[in-house]
Each structure stands twice: as C-alpha cells, then as structure tokens.
Amino acid sequence: MQTDPMNLAPDATADDTFAIETTGLTKRFAGTAVVDDLNLRVPRGSVFGFLGPNGSGKTTTIRMLLGLVNPSSGSVRLLGRSMPGAANKVLPNVGTLVEGPAFYPWLSGRRNLIRIDAAGSDPQRATRADRVAAALAHVGLSAAAEKRYRAYSLGMRQRLGLAAALLRPRSLLVLDEPTNGMDPQGTREIRNLIRAVAADGATVLLCSHLLNEVEQVCTHAAIITLGRLVAQGPLESLRETTTTRVTVETDDTERAAAVLGRLGLMQIAVTGTLVSAALDSQRPEDCCKALVLADVGVRSFVSRRPSLEDTYVELTGEGFDVAR
Amino acid sequence: MWRAELALLFRRTRTQALLGVLALVPIVVASAVRFSGSGPQPGEGPQFLDQLTHNGVFAALVGLTVTLPFFLPLAVAVVAGDAIAGEANLGTLRYLLTRPYGRTRLLVHKGAVLVAFCVIATCVVAIAGIIAGAILFPIGPVTTLSGTTLSLTAGTIRIFAAAAVVGGSLLGLAAIGLFISTLTDAPVGAMAATAGIAVLSGVLDAIPQLHAIHPWLLTHYWLTFGDLLRSPVRWTAITKNLLLQAGYMLVFITAAWARFTTKDVLA
Predict the structure, then answer these.
(1) Chain segment B130-189, per-residue pLDDT in tens
(2) CATH label of the domain that carries residue A48
(3) What phi-psi label fits residue A238: left (phi over 0), alpha (psi between -120 and 50 degrees) or beta?
(4) Among partner residues A70, A96, A115, which is closest to B264 by beta-carbon distance?
(5) Which residues, numbered 62 to 91 in chain B, qualify as contacts with chain A under a Cβ-Cβ cut-off of 8 Å?
(6) Within this chain, do residues A28 and A144 fall inside the same structural domain, yes or no?
(7) A98 in contact with chain B, both atoms CB, cutoff 8 A
(8) Which of A6, B109, B165, B261 sees the fewest Cβ atoms within 10 Å?
(9) Interface with chain A: mutation pick from B95, B104, B261, highest number of A CBs within 10 Å
C-alpha cells in the first residue's frame, strides 16, 4: 500500500503527525451525548485499536470521521484535512469496512466491486478490472467471484467487504470488526493482511471486541465508554495504567497479608488460601523473599502482568448489561 | 457514470418483472378484444379501445390509457421509493458515500435514472402494444380523433410522442418518491407512501366539490395525452400538465436535496 503523493498534497494547515485527529468531537441524539468531547489522536503509521463496550459510541465516532454523521460540535481531521469539507479529496485514500459488509444481493461479488469502484468521481476505468481481480485474490475470493452476493456465507461477505476496502492504495483503513463471522484461517489472514498494510506505511483503525486480537496486531489503542475516551496511547503505556497484582497461596493467610501490608502493597484481599495484593513500586521477587523470611509457608507465588483485558475491564466496568 | 446506476436498476429481477408486467397489459387487452368475438362499440371501454379492431397500433394507446392510472404509477413508486431508502436498507449507502460519491451527485444520478425509467416504462408499454396490435389486427394509416388520417409512420411517431408525454406525466410522482425515499431507511414504506399519494390525488380529482384544487393535482391532466392524436395537436392541456409536473419536480427535488445533503446516515 503506497500513499499516492499526488492525491494527498497536504494543505497549508495539514498536520502530518496524526492520521486521525478529533477535537472536542461531540454528537447528541435527542439531547443525549452519544459521543462526548472526544479528542482522539491516531498517529500516522500506527495500527490503532479502538475499543469500547457495545453502545459506547464507537460506531457513531467512526461515522463522524467518515462524514456520514454530522458532529453536534467539535471537529475531525482525517489525513491532515478537515472533514467533512475535504471528503472528496480525503476519502479516496481511505478504505472502510463499517458495521459489516453491504452489497447488492442480485449482483456477483465481482460486479459489486466494479459497481462500488465506478461510483466515485475518480473512476480509473483502465485499471479497474485488474484491481478488482487483485482485491478478490487478496481476500481469497477468486473462486467465488461470479457467485451472486446473495449466495455468499457470512465470512465470504466479510471478505468481499475487505476486498472493497483494498480496491485502491489506501493511506488509512478503518476496519470495524473485520474478522466477524470468519473461520480461523480467515482471522489469521486478516491479521497478516493488517500487518502487511501497516508495514507499507498505512494507518489502520481497528475496532474490535477481540482484545487478544487487538493485542496481537495493534501498536496503539484507545478505550471509549459512555461516549467518553478513558484512555489512549501506545499499548504498553495503556497496560501500565493497570497495576500488576501478586497472588500468594498459603495456609497462613493472616501473616502473609500482614507482611505484604508492611511492604506497602495495596488492595490486599484474602479469599480462601489465596492472598492477593496490588504492587505499587515493589518488585515481586522482594515480596516473595519477605514472605519466606517471615516464615510464611508459600505454596505458590504468582505475579501477573496486566493484560489489555484487565485494563479494559478496569476502565469500562465489569457489568454485562449494556450501559445504555 | 450514471450509466452504472442505470445498469444496476435494470439488472435487477424486480425491475425486469415490473417492465414485464407493463408489457403484458397491452398484450392482454389486445388479445381479449381479438378473441372475444365482438369488437367494442364506439365510445365503449377505455380511450381508443373502439379503434383497436380497425388498426392494431391503437393497442399502444389503449395500453398507455389502462396502465396510467395504476400500473405505471406503481412501477414509478417502487423505483423512486427505493432510490435512496433501498441503498440505506442494504447498507450500501454508507459505502457509496465513503467511496466517496458526493451526496448531491448521487441524488442527481438517482434522479436521472428515474427520468429514464419513466420514459423507458411508457415506451415498453407502447412497443408491446404496437407489436401485439400488429400481430392480432390489421395495421395501416392512423385515423386521428379529429377524423383526419395520418400515415402509419406519422401515426407511430405520434404514439411515441404520447408515450413520452405519459413518461413526463410521471415525473412529478417520481420526484415525490425520491423525496420520500430520503426520509426513511425502509424502502417498502417509501414505495407505499408514494403509491398512496398517486391514489390520493386520483381520489381527490374524482370529487367534484374539490374542483378548485383539481388543476393542481398531480394526476389531473394525466389522460390528456390523447390530445396528441388530434389534428392539429391540441397542446393546451399537455403543456399545463408538463408545467405542473415541472413544478412538482422543482419543489420535491429541492426538498430531497435539502434533506439528503444534511441528514445523518445511520444505516
């Protein structure tokens, strides 16, 4: 994926640091702020995970980024240009897969891609057939190219949606749940594809609930809940916002808790034979040593580095019910 | 570019079925007259029916007369109501707009396709009528409503002019349908509402007490296309009709544009 410099001459105020930059972005539906004062910064060249529970405002944000929904207030800059004003200049460089694929059921996969490619003001007719064939091959759909979209399975539809996003060289890919409904091979391929696209210098905004997937491919992430951004940055720094916990298994829980408390650990909790506590700046090995020296019979000692999931749950809550 | 839009419409089975039904109407009417034994008496049945046994080309005009109150507006309502709401319902609207396909440009192309559909639909009726008439009845010079005679060629040209005028009569309804189509993501609702407006206009037009508003009704001048078959052609009502349709188009296309270019696309 190469950025076409001719297409993307930055305007006078263009900022090259961020592929996506929103300032105070807000959307109210019937008085309720679905997206509330969002300052999203997606660095160029990053693979950016955009995370949040169902109904947190992810999709509305994406729709505002792409000019489908008008913000109630705030602004969006996409690839250095202001949206939706510069939509015609910016969007040809943006591949999208938003809220699932959507195509005409009565057309074949290939005809659908031709249709969407021909729809813009920059048809590039001469290369169309080749680009369509290449995109179909890229997502492994060549064999089903002439089948009607109606007959496609969920995973095939998803693949065709990706093919549409890859029809042209893109500087930015916005992918909302790209592996939804895909088989494991498909999921793996999508991961490889995202990595390949990013290696060529494109930025990828990836919305997903599959946190381990995000951990595998993303360099940065943001977490949104109830329309507000609660964290964003490089993946490493996000993990650090959650504390590492140690867990000791022992039959002398009382003494173990006392030792850990003396060391300055927080949130000490005893459940059965387990004592767990949050590290502040102490090293886990020192804790273990102190326990042993205090004559606590240690059956096991575990220090767990927080996963993205821990951060996510800590920031967005444990509740299963949708927030609104 | 709007040719892609046109291809999309005519590749669809539903569109083909609509046109098929429209073609069937003059064929059924002509066959019924041909095989029923006794031809219609002068003044009996719909406009031009009594001429059919003398000259097959009149099947085209009979076809236009019988499809105009119901089948043609229904077909236009289906296509117009689907124009934007159909894309929204499939979800393709968000991909078209982020392609990007400017909103104004999309609306213009959908409008152009609608105009083409109106003309093509009426021409399908006319062509099917002429072919069926030519097979089932003798054809020859066309006797006008004024009693004069036109050559077969001149008569056929008049028939296609009539088809074009009928197509033009449908444009106001098409514009209303396009506007309604921008209001909803449910194409069936937009189609039903559009068809309902055509029916309502016809009902209001049939109530004598409302004669004051009759000249402003969408359907009021619809059947005046027959004036093209007079000698000389009587243009008054036809001109009024086309001006009225242009007025409806101006209002509802502007409304559709105002609505569509500002709305949040959530589908």
Answers:
(1) 999 999 999 989 988 888 999 999 999 999 999 999 999 999 999 999 999 999 999 999
(2) 3.40.50.300
(3) alpha
(4) A70
(5) 90-91
(6) yes
(7) yes
(8) A6
(9) B95
